[in-house]
Amino acid sequence: MDDYLREQFKTISSESEIIYDYSYKDGNTYITKGIADTYPCVIAHTDTVHDICEDLTVFDNTKIMFAMDMTLGTQTGIGGDDKVGIYIALEMLRSVDVIKVAFFRDEEHGCLGSAEADMNWFKDVEFVLQCDRQGYKDFVSDIYGQKLFDRSFSKAISKILTKYGKKENPQGGLTDVYQLLENGLDVCVANISCGYYRPHTDTEVIVISEVFDTRDMVLEIIDKIGGTMWKNGLYTGPYIKKKTAYESSRSFGEWNDTYEDRYNEKYKEDKSKDRWDDFYDEDREYYNQLDLETCCSVCNSEEIIYDDAQDADWCYSCDDYTNHYSNDTPNGLSIDEYEEWLTKKEKVSLSKSKLNE
Ligand SMILES: [Zn+2]
Ligand SMILES: [Zn+2]
Predict the structure, then answer these.
(1) Phi/psi at 68 (nearest 5 deg)?
(2) What's the CA gap between 67 and 203, in Å, rounded?
């Protein structure tokens, strides 16, 4: 992936007269485009959880992309986590005149790459966006109790989020933007769902239109708010991991007019009720529509794995098949079509042209 990024850098930088800077340090890639006092910034991670597969072949059916291990003849994770993020970062590098993009190694091992990030390189970034979350609708506003951005940032982009059908979600998981805050970065950051589903499993798929919509949204955000420094007024400094997301979301109650207001409205009478149950229900409803579950519908565990033969998810906690789907496989083909496709070995390789489309 690092070699691929170097090649992409060469191609993109040769296409324009703009001055670029490329550096590779401790396994991380940093690219600056243009010369300015400050830069919008987009980051992604270069590793995936999947084993390297000798004969990985990417298929798509115009709606969905998925990968097959052609040696074994079975589906394998496509690595949309975080190749979708890499794609979007490269697209920004292509289309924005003044921008910084960075690519970190070993996010999946606990953000080891970003923990060693060159923070001097980040001193002139205006804000940092990362696309490293499953699903489509989340614009992550909190990770482990740290507010990723403040109210003025939220207001500045809220119309764009609505336009693209995304919503602030305070339940973020560990990713590089959080690590950068831990490193002392005090500008607004966000992590965005970008159209991959079932990450970390062999049944990982990418919903193509959602990738493009997310790309367009990131571009629109940069167009609208780029050129200004967005210091995070709610930045509380490193080492706040000990606070749970639940406690700190409550303590910041006044400003989040999405989740927090709805919660207060709903539980005016009975504040003892566990708010998250309902929010999980809303998520579940959304994923049901997409026919892609991200957790067990019985016990909420995320330890599920899709079983092709059963067309259902096996839940390790329930020790049973819990999420049952329609007759379609997750990639949108019927099982017959899927097998026919396999025998034909109609390869659609993940070529650069595909990524560049
Ligand atoms: Zn991951
Ligand atoms: Zn990831």
Answers:
(1) -120, 140
(2) 8
Cα 355 from Cα 9, distance rounded (Å): 14
CA–CA gap between residue 243 and residue 223 (Å, rounded)? 35
User: Distance from the CA of 186 to the center of ligand 1, in angstroms?
Assistant: 25
Over the stretch 62-94, which tens digit does the pLDDT of each residue have?
Answer: 789 999 998 888 899 999 999 999 999 999 999
Over residues 121-148, the pLDDT tens digits come to 999 999 999 999 999 999 999 998 889 9
Residues near ion ligand 2 (Cβ under 5 Å): 81-82, 132
Triad 263, 266, 268: Cα angle to 5°: 95
Domain ranges of the chain: 2-243
CA of 75 to the centre of ligand 2 (A): 20
CA distance 340 to 120: 53
CATH match of 2-243 with 3.40.50.620:
no
Measured in angstroms, how far is the CA atom of residue 49 from the centroid of ligand 1? 6
